[in-house]
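Problem: given the chain below (86 residues), write out its structure.
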Amino acid sequence: MRLFIPPALFLSILIALLYACLYHLIQGRTLRELLLAFLVSILGFGLGQVIGMVAGLPFPALGQVHLLEGTAACWTALYIARRLNL
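Solution.
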């Protein structure tokens, strides 16, 4: 049995992990912070995707991936996590 991951999901996770790595490069210090950034980034980007689908805003998308909404929600989630000292 083969595992099938939809391209939009794969691209979304890849972009979120890229943002987490970039954030950790700028702000991170420990492995725990990197792992937390991975989790927060994926959740934030996913929330942005949901907002993009529900709101139906006319922002550009890459296939089914709402880049602007996902990016904004991802960086907002990372900022909030940092401010809460998680």
